[in-house]
Amino acid sequence: MCARAFSIDIFAKMSRIDLRSHLFSHMKIISGTAHPQLASDIAKELGLPLCDASVNAFPDGESFVQINESIRGEDVYIVQPTCPPTNHNLMELLVMVDAVRRASASRITAVMPFYGYARQDRKDKPRVPITSKLVANLLTAAGVNRVLTMDLHAAQIQGFFEIPVDHLHSLPVLIRHLKEHYVKDINNLVVVSPDIGGVKTAKAYANILGTQLAIVAKQRISATEVDAHALIGDVAGKDVLLVDDMTESGGTLCAAAGILKQHGAARIFAGVSHAVLNEKACSRLAASPIERLLTSDSVPMACGVEGVDTVSIAPLFAQAIANIHNNASVTHLFEVGC
Description:
Structural class: alpha/beta
C-alpha cells in the first residue's frame, strides 16, 4: 500500500454505496504488473474481485499472459499505466489485450492512468518519430475498443485515436487534499507554473482556487538539468503551489522552488499529476525548499517516498468505469471544478 495514500470522495454524488448500486454483470477488471495496487483499489471501489489472470515474463524477458477464467462476452477493463519500465509495460499491455480479444471479450478498455511516450507528441526536430501516435496505433491494432486515461501531457493526443478516449483530471483530487491537510488560508496562496508550457494547467488551478498566478522562466540545460532564472509575479510572504503534469528527475520543480525562495515565498508545495520519480528526483526533493509534493497514485514510483503524499485516484477511475459500463454520461468526470 502506498504510504500516506488517501482515498477521497471527490464528487458529492459519488460514494461506494452509489458505485455498488450499479449493475456490474459481465464486467471484468484485469491487472497488469505495472501497478497492481491501483487495480486492486479500483476493483475494491466497484465491489468486484480482480479477474484471475497470470501475467508474468519468461527468463528471456518475453511477456506471457493467460486468462484463467471465462471472459467470453464480458466488458473487460485492463489496468496498466505505461510507466517505467515503459517498453516492458507497454508490450505487456498489448499482449494482455491480444489475450483478452482472443478469449472473445465483448469490449476491451485500456485503463492507462499514465500514458507513456506522451511527451513525444509532435515532430519538433528533423527525422524524429511521433511516438505517442505510434502507441495509439499499436493499442488500436491490438484490439483496444476504448481508452481511459488521466492528465495527458498533451490533450491533443486524444485525436491520435480513432476510438473513444475518456480523459480524466486529477486536479480536483489534489486540490481537495491540499485544502484539507495543508493550506487553510487560500487568500495567502499563489499558484505558480514552473515554466511557460505549464501556464494553462496552473491557470486552471488558480481559477478554481480563486488565487493569483505566477510564472517561473526557465532554460533547460539537459534532460535532467534546468536553470530557473526569472519570476513573473509576486510571491513574497505567500504560500506557493507549484503545479505541473508530471515530474521525473525533479529538476524543473526544484529549480523553480529555489528561485521562489529567493523572492520571499513562505511555504512551498508542489502538485503533479504523475510523479514518475527516479533516485535523483528523490534526493533533489529532499534537499529542496518544497515542503510536500502532492501527487496521484497513477504510478507506483512515489509510494513511500519521504515528503510525498500520494492521493488515491481509485474512486475517480471506479466511477468512470461504472459509468462507461452502464452507458451513463462521464462528462462530469472531465470537469475540473472542485
